Hints:
- This protein is α/β, with parallel strands linked by helices.
- About 15% of the residues lie in helices and about 35% in strands.
- It has helices at about 90-95, 130-145, 185-195, 210-220; strands at about 15-30, 30-40, 55-60, 65-70, 70-75, 80-85, 105-110, 120-130, 150-160, 175-180, 200-205, 230-235, 235-240, 245-250.
- The strands form 3 sheets. The protein has a 7-stranded antiparallel sheet with strand order 4-3-7-1-2-6-5. A 5-stranded parallel sheet has the order 10-9-8-11-12, covered by helices on one side.
Amino acid sequence: MFPGFSTSSSLGWLGAARDLTVTAVEPITENYLRLRCDDGGLLSGQFVRPTTCAELAFLVDGGTHRRYYTLVDPDPAAGTLALEFACRGGIGARWAQTAIIGDRLAARLAAPRFDLPRPVDGWLIAGDASSLPAVNSLLGAIAASDEPDVPVTIWMEYRTDDEFTLPLRAHEDHRVEWVARGADGSSLPAVIRADAFAAAGYRGWVGTEAGATRRIADLFRHDYGLGRAAVTAQGYWVGDGAGVSTRRVMLAST
C-alpha cells in the first residue's frame, strides 16, 4: 500500500502507484530545486507526452498531501526522471528542501492530457517558475517535431530576480519576454494584451496563476485570433491579493 493512494482504480490514471527514489539533489537557484529520481517502474511501457505529470504523495507534518508535478527529462528506457520545485513555502517544496539521496516518494502517472498539434504556424506560451518544467517540456517537443522552426513567443512571469537565471530551454530564435509580477497579478495579462498581433494558425499554451491564466487564455483566443480549440490553459497556483501563492491548483504542472 502506498501512503495517500487507494488500491481501487479510477479513470484518469495510468498504472499503479510506484516509489520514486531520490538519486541526486541539485539546487538550481536559492529558490529553485531539482531532484533526480529512479522511477521505480513508473514509466515502464509508457509513451511520455509533453507536459506529462504525476501525482505525488508527500508525507509532511504527520499527514499525506498530494500534489501534481511535471516530469522533467523522463526516460522510460533508463527508468529515470527529475522533479523541479519552485520553493515558495508549499507542501512539495518543503519536502524537497529536506530531501536527501535515498528518500522515497510515492507517485502515480496522470493520464495523458496533451498531444503536440500539427500542422501549426507558431506558438504563444505564457508561464512562470511553477510551470517552467511544463514549458521546457513543450519547447523540447517543438524542437524535436517536424516543425521545429515555427515562430515561438514566450512570456515568463517572475517574482524574484534569480528567476531570470532559471533554465528556460528556449531556442535562440524564440522571442522571450520576462515580466515582473505586480501586486495584483495584472502585469502579465497587460503585457500580453499590449503585444497582440494576428496569430491565426498559431497554438497557445498557458500555465500561470489561476486568475491570470483565464485572462491570458481569453486574450490568446480573441485578441490574437487563435480561437477556443487552439489554446491549452491550466492554472498552476492560486494567489492572494498580494500575489502570494496560497495553494497549488490540481495540475500544478500539467
